[in-house]
Design goal:
Order of helices and strands: HEHEHEHHH
Structural class: mainly alpha
Strand order of the largest sheet: 1-2-3
Length: 159
């Protein structure tokens, strides 16, 4: 259902599913994602304790599957929107670094990032398709994705 042949950008849109997650999957989650043949996993926050389990399991048990596992690249360059997202991400990661120094478990980080999460929600609430950029002619895809996110979060949306 999730895995189809191909590893180009369009293949992930047309013949596979992508899971976006805040925290890098733990070993149990990583193995579940591999078993269900998730095409691509993208995470925001690396897990310093359990991170890397997906690659070990994939190499050992699922080496022939065309799947990808990566941290979301947030550069904060290119547009005003990207700069706002990049600044928010940098502040959140700095806060997470401080939480790690206080021995807060990775799975509890978001409990301490409510202000940043509210800011992200407000940013997404006010995002327009014209704020987004794409490496290809992806305006239609961006519009559909943005509307889907806003709908899932019970935000007003339009395509």
């Amino acid at each position: 259902m999730f895995m189809g042949k191909g590893s180009s950008t369009d293949d992930f849109l047309n013949v596979g599913a992508t899971l976006f997650t805040t925290l890098e999957p733990c070993p149990m989650c990583a193995s579940s994602l591999l078993v269900c043949r998730m095409k691509r996993i993208v995470f925001l926050i690396p897990d310093q304790k359990y991170g890397g389990a997906w690659q070990i399991l994939k190499t050992k048990f699922y080496a022939s599957d065309e799947s990808q596992y990566l941290q979301l690249a947030i550069t904060g360059k290119g547009t005003e929107f990207a700069e706002r997202v990049g600044a928010l991400y940098s502040r959140m990661m700095a806060k997470i670094d401080e939480l790690r120094k206080q021995n807060v478990r990775d799975t509890h980080f978001l409990d301490f990032c409510r202000d940043e999460l509210d800011e992200a929600f407000q940013l997404l609430l006010n995002t327009k398709v014209s704020d987004l950029s794409s490496v290809s002619a992806g305006e239609s895809r961006n519009a559909t994705t943005l509307a889907g996110l806003q709908r899932a979060l019970n935000m007003p949306y339009s395509i």
